[in-house]
Automatic annotation (TrEMBL):
The keyword Oxidoreductase does not apply. Belongs to the TRAPP small subunits family. BET3 subfamily. Keywords: Endoplasmic reticulum, ER-Golgi transport, Golgi apparatus, Transport. Gene3D superfamilies: Trafficking protein particle complex subunit 3. The keyword Transferase does not apply. It comes from the Eukaryota. It is found in: Endoplasmic reticulum; Golgi apparatus, cis-Golgi network. This is Trafficking protein particle complex subunit. Pfam families: TRAPP. GO terms for cellular component: endoplasmic reticulum; Golgi apparatus; TRAPP complex. GO terms for biological process: Golgi vesicle transport; macroautophagy. Homodimer. May play a role in vesicular transport from endoplasmic reticulum to Golgi.
């Protein structure tokens, strides 16, 4: 069943009200400390970006269960409904911000999630030697991991980033494949 934009916004508000809250400044500073440790450990910016994506993927794989249990959303009708659910329900539920969906491609298989307010980048300024760092790349991984758990294989990347001089944060999401559910043959052998 398709949900309208207003319904998504209402569901996002309801989900946000159900969630336990963490102080935003504490969250931003803790995330910043983690990124800083990765920069010190890996030194190579590309490796740090990959590590943030991997960490996000692992979070997304686990976070989808909580999202489905607490958000009040049903199954999404199509990719457009999924995009609106991510932007208006999931971002509100977990980060307290509402994102917008924009820039659909002609095939309807790619879209952008636009964040005007990114709580991860509070108090952050990238030093010149780390200008290629995708500081919030964990978000791309979270989206990728969560969608994979609901049978959608996507590529996710930052197209624009405020920390790198852009006017807003834009995450580009492209559907690569709808995964078929596979039954485990070993499960049936044991029956």
């Amino acid at each position: 069943m398709a949900t309208s934009g207003k319904q998504h916004t209402r569901l996002g508000e309801q989900a946000w009200n159900k969630m336990s809250k963490v102080n935003a400044e504490f969250f931003a500073l803790t995330y910043g400390a983690m990124v800083m440790q990765l920069v010190q450990d890996f030194e190579d910016t590309a490796a740090v970006n990959a590590q943030l994506d991997t960490m996000g993927y692992n979070i997304g794989v686990r976070l989808i269960d909580e999202f489905l249990a607490k958000s009040g959303t049903g199954a999404c009708a199509d990719l457009r409904d999924t995009a609106e659910t991510i932007a208006k329900v999931a971002f509100k539920m977990f980060l307290g911000v509402v994102a917008e969906v924009a820039n659909w491609n002609a095939d309807g298989t790619a879209f952008s999630v636009v964040l005007y307010d990114n709580p991860l980048i509070e108090f952050v300024e990238l030093p010149p030697q780390h200008c290629e760092l995708l500081y919030s790349n964990v978000l791309c991984g979270v989206i990728r991991g969560a969608l994979e758990m609901v049978q959608m294989k996507v590529e996710c990347r930052f197209a624009r980033d405020v920390l790198r001089g852009d006017d807003l944060n834009e995450i580009r999401v492209e559907l690569k494949e709808v995964l078929a559910e596979q039954m485990d043959d070993q499960y049936f052998e044991g029956m």
